[in-house]
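Here comes just one.
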Amino acid sequence: MKIAYLINQYPKISHSFIRREILALEALGLSVTRFSIRSCKEPLIDAADQEELAKTNIILDVGIIGLLVSLIKIAVTRPNRWLNALRLTFKLGWNSERGLLLHFAYLAEACVLVSRFSQLNISHFHAHFGTNSAMVVLLNHVLGGPAYSFTVHGPKEFEKVEAIGLPKKIDCASFVVGISSYGRSQLYRWCNYNEWNKIKVIHCGLDESFFSHAQQPIPEELRLVCVGRLCEQKGQLLLVEAASKLVSLGYKFKLVLVGDGELRAPIEEAIKSDKLEGDDSDDYYQFSLDKTAGVSVAWSSSESITVELLDSNKTLIKSLSGTNIYDDDVLFDNLKAGTYYLHLLTGNNTVSNYDVELFVGPTDNVDNASQTPKDLGDLTATSVTQSDYIYTYSGFSDSDTYSFTLTEASVVDFTWTDGVGDNTNIYLGSGFGTFEDLLPYYNGDYEETVSYQRTLGAGTYEFTIDYKYISNAPASYNLTLTASEAPDAGNSLGEAQDLGLFSYSITSPLTIPIFKEFSEVVGGDDSDDYFKFTLDNTVGVSASWSSSETITVEILDSNGTFIKSLSSNHNDVLFENLNAGTYYLHLLTGNNTVSAYDLVLQVGPTDNVDNASQTPKDLGDLTTTPFNQSDYVHGNRIQDHDIYSLTLTEETVVDFTWTDGVGDDTRFQLWSISPVFATFNYFYNWEDEETVSYQETLGPGTYRFEMWGSGPVYAPASYDLTLTATPTGNTNDSPTDITLSNTTIDENEPINTEIGTLTTTDTDAEETFTYSLVAGEGDTDNSLFTIDGNVLRSNAIFDFEAQETYSIRVETTDSANNTYSEAFIINIEDINESIATLDIDDNGALEPQDYNLINLYSSQLDESEFYFLINNFSNDLIGKNSTRTDASSIFSYLNEVGEILLDIDGNNKV
């Protein structure tokens, strides 16, 4: 069984109980996939948490665009379920204290999960906490995801039951966990009694290994240690109050509070006001070594503390001060066999919480635990060698940083050998130009020695040797650096700097492309730079650069004849497939502007699609004739992933099948351009596979898909792609007509008055349509009208005497984005606006007049019921309107010549 856990933030320093729960399930043979809505902002100190982080899928890593794409995709592919989830989102979000907007975010996060669980074959979701994580798994379930359960911790869930929709979450869950009997009793209150059997109690416990630690002797002084989040639910302020009373009674008592939280400031203030701080002025730790080793001490603290390393006589060896919460500083020294002490202090009465870690490993000859570069001085043709160990473990990162100086432009050779199975990297640091962020040079598991050359101008540079793996044994390396005079790029073809022969073979197995990198200046007096290179077979050549100003790079043939060019100052790639022969790169600014630049020349496999420039290869209208394409993709220094576009004229099942080379790892992504309605998931062809087929039913429109290669340290991957299109026969024709049920409206009607209903004529059965006012012939008065669904409404109060007719243009769109538009004339009806004048005498009676039609108007200020009575002077009822509760009532009565009496509610004579 494969299950998944979802937590709002995981891993987290305060969520170790969840980690233990997951590991216990895995020990029972279950496969557990970890999901977290967001990353934890706090630094992870525990090595186990760091390992969990590498196993955890962060939902919000997809970004806002990824959330929107998942939302749209599920709406299109699962419309009924999506509408059900949307209704539930409105229902629960409307009454929530967090509002609708956040609940829409929960819906988008649930859509991301839907896309993931089908790929991972997950059969059950479990969420911790009955708040947002439980909401996401509930919506995921409504969208068609697997069954779910969740653990309620309280007390927050019990304080805001309705606001978080807890009853609905319980109702839809397979089971619900309370962490105590009290929690179970609270859950019973919020579900039907016939659901009580799904409420379980699972306590948060400790592993058996926790109790196997050697017991520490009980100290003579009274001591209480409380570990937990500093919050009102834990009640640590009561402990501070109790400690104050014990001290006032003369007891020697020590209270240790371990944790952090929203009540930290009030607790610290209470400690200060009760004068309880400053009693624990020093902390000492003793440790022994049986051989020479490198010792590192790292810590994080609420206040600045000093950490001292002392020898067996408690003589100071080394010290370092700070909080180091967001710092990489580490107290380090190589120590011989013997006994040593760590001394921690604030140096004043300030109280500080701290976490400290002691790490014992190999000696560090460079001493870069403190991140201070080891200066190699002026680099010359005389080799400089260095041997050391590097590692990344449990929050410690010992990466060796060096600096060197060049007095003139030079070619620097970096050569290093690492241990068997080790994987080390070189990162170029300050002074190396913008390419330093793009590529660390790797010495992979399968390699022993790597050499890398870089042309650099005069100046001071830094580089770092780092270790790829976390929590593995340290890696050893032997490094050699040499510097030789850099040939100057020539100012003409005849003086071109010769980069030599590039020999790259497009035969299996492919190797990593060849790179040449160099830094130079062009412009001003040095108006042109020329580089010469030779190829021994047909290959793909890419040139990429970053420069302080815009420069033009040209590819020329052996005669200096122009082949291709590109102007830019960063990121763009100039690419061409070239046959065997001699070629030139010509760099210039084209004016007196001087520009520094870093240039990378890459020689690798040919590119049949030419997507180094990221321009899609258009396959045109895809038909039943299969399309075939073979090419190479890779993720190296100049990334090449192949982009294609295709067009479908009718609903079609498209089969994407591709075969990659032995050991290659390729992936595929598809999304639509027009209509923009879906982004489809990645599909992978892993190393242990050869052929992958994927079918998608697509409506009419234009689509785009990409083929991607492996990561940046791997050789290019080959692939053979076949596309087959099979029409479903479900063609979607365009609408042919629009009708409007009514084209007239009385003058003086209020805004938003309904005029008529729009109907579309279409040969497709059960089609749906949307309507809009559009520009075009007859659109003169569009702004005076609105469309609500399929109802045309007024957006103004019309006056027949001012204008009798208005013109609008309406467009209907079907589900396949086919459209039809038509102009309509709206007529304004003239209304008799003469009003009979009622003359009322002093006694409230109407003066005798001849009336054919009497309109009676009443303005009611409140919402009570009212009606009109029309009586003659004999008080005989001759007319009555129906009882009304709206704010105005109109009653028309055709009256013979005579006298009438107006009476409102039978009381107030008018």
